[in-house]
């Protein structure tokens, strides 16, 4: 039997998609890359923004219409949060919510026998210890928790992922051990909010990182998105955990707005100075930290003054990257009831901010020109191989041979929207000799 899987959404959804492929393979299915040749179609869904949801629903309709004889399974966030939308898009589709991941093989078999299945459990379960087919052999995406502890006024993810449900540290470490054995060199820890990991089971992210770093193999860990609200609670321990060379000096701290008034209306439960405090403390310890943040423009009530505050905040903190989203109404959220800002204003603010972000990104890149050190090649992109250094900075390398999964000594020679580098021929760099408070000082030593 042949199964086709199409995936939308975040790293968490990507991990679920890999697990679906792995479980089906274990049940004798082959995974194919075209719906034309498949016996069953599976779509892993996302509804985080209106535009994403529309795209997913369009695709469900299309698959439903184009392949009327093939069973279609709609998995994940969309059927759990808005099942009626899936039923409307394709009456005959089976719905499997994200708390029913383990039942996918059974559901697929039932669908192949002509049954229409609906599995929409309310009870979360661990997503570890399951088979996988990885898309990228170097990267192991590890879900550490599902759901979160917040109730942001704009967010619909809570409807699908629910309250925080942390997976046990032992299970996580076991999963990572297994992934390393299969050839992974980079582990992505993923959750809707990694910062509140463990609060429901009497542990926290810092303790988890310490446990992971005890594994003896050579690998890097990318910590996923952290809500500033919860980072504040574990800051000293988290900084201590980040000291380990296995943890990328990479911080994804979504602020969402530079205006305290808007943050309050969003129910983010922190203010701009809390956010700035976390960044300052991190940067004091790790000056070459790579910083990402997220901004929502056009949240109901956002005035020109609020927007100016957001612009100023970005110009002050100079992040490496910012995910800019135009606010979109998500049904069954609090913000849906508020008076909305016009699309024209949202578009204009988004354009303006994206321009600033591009410039800031280029500036942030310039400081890396001349840097040399160790980097892990973790993907093959449009412009060549991409290697990540200790700060998870992507460095594009040109090479004919297969570099995927290799730790190389590289030098950054050019900075544009990306960093471009060359492979150094020098034999070895002692990782431990890299000056942690100023890694650029290590560069000079290496250059000589
Ligand atoms: S958790 Fe959020 S971003 Fe990830 S797939 Fe679900 S809705 Fe999309």
Briefly say what this structure is.
The protein has about 450 residues and is of the alpha/beta class. It folds into 3 domains: about 1-120, 3-Layer(aba) Sandwich (Rossmann fold); about 140-365, pyruvate-formate lyase- activating enzyme (Alpha-Beta Horseshoe), CATH 3.80.30.20; about 370-445, OB fold (Dihydrolipoamide Acetyltransferase, E2P) (Beta Barrel). The chain has helices at about 10-25, 50-65, 75-80, 85-90, 105-110, 155-160, 170-180, 205-215, 230-240, 260-265, 270-285, 305-315, 345-365, 440-445; strands at about 1-5, 30, 40-45, 70-75, 95, 120, 140-145, 145, 165, 185-190, 220-225, 250, 290-295, 320-325, 370-380, 385-390, 395, 405-415, 420-425.
How does this model look, in words?
The chain has 14 helices and 19 strands. Strand 13 (290-297), helix 12 (304-317) and strand 14 form a beta-alpha-beta unit. It is globular. The protein folds into three domains: 2-119, 3-Layer(aba) Sandwich (Rossmann fold), CATH 3.40.50; 139-364, pyruvate-formate lyase- activating enzyme, CATH 3.80.30.20; 372-447, Nucleic acid-binding proteins (OB fold (Dihydrolipoamide Acetyltransferase, E2P), Beta Barrel). With 448 residues, it is an alpha/beta fold. The relative contact order is 0.08. Residues 9-10, 12-13, 46-48, 77, 157, 160-161, 192 line the site of iron/sulfur cluster.
């Amino acid at each position: 039997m042949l199964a086709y899987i199409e995936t939308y959404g975040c790293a968490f959804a990507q991990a679920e998609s890999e697990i679906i492929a792995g479980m089906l393979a274990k049940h004798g299915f082959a995974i194919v890359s075209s719906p034309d040749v498949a016996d069953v179609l599976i779509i892993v869904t996302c509804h985080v923004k209106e535009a994403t949801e529309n795209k997913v629903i369009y695709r469900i309709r299309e698959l439903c219409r184009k392949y009327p004889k093939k069973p279609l399974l709609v998995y994940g966030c969309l059927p759990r949060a808005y099942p009626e939308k899936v039923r409307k898009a394709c009456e005959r589709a089976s719905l499997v919510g994200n708390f029913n991941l383990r039942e996918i093989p059974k559901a697929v078999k039932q669908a192949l026998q002509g049954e229409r299945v609906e599995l929409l459990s309310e009870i979360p379960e661990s997503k570890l210890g399951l088979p996988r087919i990885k898309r990228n052999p170097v990267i192991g995406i590890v879900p550490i928790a599902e759901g979160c502890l917040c109730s942001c006024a704009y967010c619909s993810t809570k409807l699908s992922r629910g309250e925080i449900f942390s997976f046990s540290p032992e299970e996580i470490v076991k999963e990572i051990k297994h992934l390393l054995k299969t050839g992974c060199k980079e582990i992505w820890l993923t959750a809707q909010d990694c910062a509140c990991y463990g609060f429901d089971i009497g542990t926290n992210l810092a303790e988890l990182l310490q446990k992971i770093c005890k594994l003896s193999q050579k690998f890097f860990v990318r910590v996923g998105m952290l809500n500033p609200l919860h980072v504040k609670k574990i800051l000293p321990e988290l900084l201590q955990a980040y000291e380990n060379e296995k943890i990328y000096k990479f911080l994804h701290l979504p602020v969402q707005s530079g205006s305290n008034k808007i943050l309050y209306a969003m129910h983010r439960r922190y203010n701009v100075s809390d956010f700035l405090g976390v960044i300052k403390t991190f940067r004091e310890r790790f000056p070459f930290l790579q910083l990402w943040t997220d901004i929502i423009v056009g949240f109901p009530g956002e005035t020109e003054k609020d927007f100016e505050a957001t612009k100023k905040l970005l110009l002050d903190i100079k992040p490496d990257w910012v995910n800019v989203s135009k606010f979109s109404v998500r049904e069954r959220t609090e913000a849906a009831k508020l008076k909305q800002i016009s699309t024209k204003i949202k578009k204009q603010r988004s354009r303006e901010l994206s321009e600033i972000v591009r410039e800031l990104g280029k500036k942030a890149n310039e400081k890396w020109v001349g840097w040399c050190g160790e980097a892990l090649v973790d993907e093959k992109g449009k412009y060549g191989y991409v290697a990540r250094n200790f700060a998870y900075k992507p460095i594009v390398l040109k090479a004919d041979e297969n570099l995927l999964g290799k730790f190389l000594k590289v030098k950054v020679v050019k900075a544009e929207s990306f960093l471009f580098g060359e492979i150094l021929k020098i034999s070895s760099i002692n990782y431990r000799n890299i000056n942690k408070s100023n890694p650029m000082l290590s560069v000079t030593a290496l250059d000589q």
